[in-house]
């Protein structure tokens, strides 16, 4: 009997997270991590909605969880549409690069930000970094129609000695079609870009090249980017977007000669800490495992895809057909808040999770989160671990922050399962 009890205890330790409820509440104070890469080609990463983001200090700037989840759903639908129908929406034609200034919900282009230098002399700008986008752009003076409110001074090309527009007949101008999903425009022989997102938020302006400073020693004299003079969307007062996608115009491709198309990022485990975005290969510990990107998807060049082999909950392997994951495709996207799974996979995961959490009081659904719990009377909780095995037999155990999402910074709030089923594409 003692042996069986010990066995059950060891199984619980291996297959469950036992945590204090207070430890999984959102951070209200910035506590930067002392750890980080020693390499010079690294940028500090902070959460767009967290206390370490200097542009988010005013309470009036902070979005509610319901707003964040709504924006997240919009972003996922946009990614699904691009994956299903291809990138070319051809929204811009002729010489007039002008998109309707229709205000939707936030653009949802990402939740983590970095700071880079732009121009000569270099000035610092805070950009959302996004593995699901390709073109880097920033708001520019003069704002022809409208610029959303940002914290940094708006970039002014007239004050930089290294700025120049790209001509309409340049090869880089033609390349905008794949990077933005829109054909380029032309004005007085200058190339115009336009990028529009699922909720009709957008950026329009001149396609140009400029001096980009990532670190004091890593400077790129001819970096192609968008100089946005007509921009609409809620970007949390950032200056624009850093595109880390797979297109030739992404920062990953443009810096390939120096970094070899290698980059890595470590996201903050809590919104009150910081992470890093590092360019280049560098040394890799022997303990690190790699899962290959999928090449089976028809849109594999647009996003970073991984193949899922299996999922387990609390040590229980879920019965999910391999065809479920092969059909849907699995996108790695830094801008998406909630993990989406194909409906059949999510149904199996949710059922197992609810069964293993049956001892806890349930709470009403919160927006798209349909499995929620009330821990107000608990000091410690035992949460089943969720493990995902990718191709190459690479197993990833989700941290507690990847399993449960708190509805507020108070223990009186509810916690929702941090995974949902993917929305249907209408």
UniProtKB/TrEMBL annotation:
It holds the Pfam family TAXi_C. Residues 112-426 form the Peptidase A1 domain. Residues 27-46 are annotated as: Disordered. It comes from the Eukaryota. GO terms for biological process: proteolysis. InterPro entries: Aspartic_peptidase_A1, Aspartic_peptidase_AS, PEPTIDASE_A1, Peptidase_aspartic_dom_sf, TAXi_C, TAXi_N. The active site is at 130, 333. GO terms for molecular function: aspartic-type endopeptidase activity. Belongs to the peptidase A1 family. This is Peptidase A1 domain-containing protein. It comes from Coffea canephora. The lineage of its organism: Eukaryota, Viridiplantae, Streptophyta, Embryophyta, Tracheophyta.
């Amino acid at each position: 009997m003692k042996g069986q009890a010990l066995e059950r205890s060891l199984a619980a330790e291996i297959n469950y997270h036992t945590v204090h409820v207070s430890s999984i509440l959102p951070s209200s104070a910035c506590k930067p991590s002392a750890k980080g890469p020693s390499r010079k080609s690294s940028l500090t990463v902070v959460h767009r909605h967290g206390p370490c983001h200097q542009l988010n200090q005013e309470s009036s700037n902070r979005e509610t969880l319901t707003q964040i989840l709504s924006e997240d759903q919009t972003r996922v639908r946009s990614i699904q549409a691009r994956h299903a129908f291809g990138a070319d929406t051809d929204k811009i034609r002729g010489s007039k690069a002008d998109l309707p200034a229709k205000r939707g919900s936030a653009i949802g282009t990402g939740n983590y930000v970095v700071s880079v230098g732009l121009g000569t002399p270099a000035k610092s700008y805070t950009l959302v970094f996004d593995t699901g986008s390709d073109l880097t752009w920033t708001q520019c003076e003069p704002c022809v129609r409208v610029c959303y409110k940002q914290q940094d001074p708006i970039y002014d090309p007239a004050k930089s000695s290294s700025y120049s527009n790209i001509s309409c007949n340049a090869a880089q101008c033609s390349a905008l079609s794949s990077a933005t999903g829109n054909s380029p425009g032309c004005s007085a022989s200058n190339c115009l870009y336009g990028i529009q997102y699922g909720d009709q938020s957008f950026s329009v302006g001149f396609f140009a090249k400029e001096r980009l400073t990532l670190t004091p020693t890593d400077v790129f004299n001819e970096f192609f980017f968008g100089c946005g003079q007509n921009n609409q969307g809620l970007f949390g007062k950032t200056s624009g977007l850093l595109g880390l996608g797979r297109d030739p115009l992404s920062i990953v491709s443009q810096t390939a000669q120096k970094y070899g198309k290698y980059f890595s990022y470590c996201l903050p485990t809590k919104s009150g800490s910081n992470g890093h975005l590092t360019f280049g290969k560098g040394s890799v510990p022997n303990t690190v495992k790699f899962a290959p990107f999928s090449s089976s998807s028809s849109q594999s060049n647009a996003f970073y895809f991984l193949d899922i082999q299996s999922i387990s909950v609390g040590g229980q392997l879920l019965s999910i057909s391999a065809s479920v994951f092969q059909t849907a495709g699995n996108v790695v996207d830094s801008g998406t808040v909630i993990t989406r799974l194909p409906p059949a996979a999510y149904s199996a995961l949710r059922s197992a999770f609810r069964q293993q959490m049956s001892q806890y009081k349930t709470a009403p659904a919160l927006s798209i989160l349909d499995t929620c719990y009330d821990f107000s009377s608990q000091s410690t909780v035992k949460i089943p671990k969720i493990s995902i095995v990718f191709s190459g037999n690479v197993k990833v155990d989700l941290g507690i922050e990847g399993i449960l999402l708190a509805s507020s910074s108070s223990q009186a709030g509810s916690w929702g399962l941090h995974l949902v089923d993917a929305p249907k594409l209408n």
